[in-house]
Amino acid sequence: MSQLQSKSSGKKVRTISIPYKPREYQKEVHDNKKRFNVLVCHRRFGKTVLAVNEMIKTAANKPRSLCAFIAPTYRQGKSIAWEYLKFYTKPLMYLGGSRNETELRIDLFNGSRIQIFGADHPDSIRGMGFDGVVRLGNVYWNSNGT
Predict the structure, then answer these.
(1) SS3 for 136?
(2) What is the crossing angle of helices 24-31 and 47-61, to 10°?
(3) Whole-angstrom distance, CA of residue 21 vs CA of residue 79
């Protein structure tokens, strides 16, 4: 993390470095995102790391945004993504914010929130109005939400 002087306003601007360096194909995904994206990749591609870092980027750049990582079950979400989420948001915690281990939630300095959910309890995410969603694996809901 370093301090920079803004040329236009004279204010000090903080630069935060996230410890993520995308691989060649991950970078291609980052550079060519659309509103909806579907990735079909081999199991060691780094889909979770890519997705976690995209959510962090969205949450950090858009104040008061709400991002969700939806796994087939809540427990799978915790075992798959929670450690990555904590690791990659650690540099942002110096600006403020908090982590809630019980709710698998990270609140950032700008009021944004990233949270892990399980598709096994679809009512927990109904009507939340997300700004970014990552859906992992085979998550299916029928018309009544189960």
Answers:
(1) coil
(2) 40
(3) 22
Between β-strands 2-5 and 12-15, what pairing exists: parallel, antiparallel or unpaired?
antiparallel
Quick one: DSSP state of residue 86? Answer: H
φ/ψ (deg, to 5) at 134: -115, 125
Whether pTM exceeds 0.85? no
Cβ burial of 108 (10 Å; 0-12, 13-18, 19+) is: buried
- Give me the domains of the chain, ranges plus CATH numbers: 19-135 (3.40.50.300)
Read off the pLDDT of residues 19-72 as tens digits, 9 standing for 90 and up.
Answer: 888 888 889 888 888 888 888 888 888 889 999 999 999 999 999 999 999 999
Quote the tokens at residue 29: 């995904």
Task: Find tokens 């990749």 and name the residue.
Answer: 41
Q: Which single residue is written with the structure tokens 């997300």?
A: 130
Confidence of residue 2 (pLDDT cuts 50, 70, 90): very low
